Amino acid sequence: MEKMIEAYEAFYKRFIPYLIAIPLVIMTVVIFINVIGRKLSMPFPVTVELVEALLVVYPIDAAFKFIPTGLFTYTSNFTLSALPLFILMGTLAFYADLGKDAYDAAKAWFGRVPGGLGVATVYSSAIFGACSGSSLSAVAVFSKIAVPEMVRAGYNKKMALGVVASAGCLDVLIPPSILMVFYGIITETSVGQLLIAGIMPGILTAVLMATAVMITCKIYPETAPISSELDTSWKTRWKTLKSLWAAAALFISVLGAIYTGFATPDEAAAVGVVGALLLVYIRGNLTWERVTYSFIDSAKVTAMIFLLLGAGYIFSTFLSTTGVVSTMTGWIKSLELSFFMLMVGI
Length: 346
Known about the structure:
- Helices cover 79% and strands 0% of the residues.
- The chain is mostly helical.
- It has 2 domains: 131 residues, no CATH class; 165 residues, no CATH class.
- It is globular and about 65 Å long.
């Protein structure tokens, strides 16, 4: 018995470096192929699929059968139906000019404070985020609306672009956030609870971001002069505030349905699409061309997200099959790192 134990220990000491090295080599090849793919301007999901086709441990015929099967199985999840609907809702909100209404209202209320146009951009981006849920949509809208006006008012161009880029990130928190739906699906967390939980952090982040803009412009007034041409009368303020009814109605219809339990996130997304379509019609912006562009743009973004989700699912299966995850987990545990050092490493 003792000889068997000694033989096992000798074998273990001799071959353990190879057992650890194999997954590390696989990960190195994975990273190398992804770097080459980025240099060749290949989309990330495509490079992931290429890695899987080359390195998956199944026989090659089984590998090529597993890839389409895995893609279909994961992307046919009913929960994913909320993603294209929220994306379409955001596109229709763009054509309904909700972003412009939000910016005009915020400009009338905050135009006279230090960095007024920047503060208006932050708050209007938060309002638009409650209708679109997409950071890309917010940046696209306010780069056309807010940046030219800030530059004309004498704002530093870097300041103007920085405010728009950072304010666009608010849409990640403020429901109906597409990224929250994405995260909830991946982590199998309740999408409805995630969306409701994002309301207060989103509002607080918007307030802190606007405060940071005001403090910066107070310290460096030359970067954002106060415009004397802005109409900030109470008459204009109330008039622009009334124009926000559309954004408020869309936000309440979606979040209200989820919060009261009247509808699931998927059903609430469908309600949001119908509401956005009605707003476009009421405002006289409904044309076949705009509707066509809305559906085409939404389909492009949805296809990209679905391909990324499917590729991620297959890639995670590949990592678990090859033992990369278990080996790396065991190695990290063996280091006995403190919580702080582990966070630094991550």
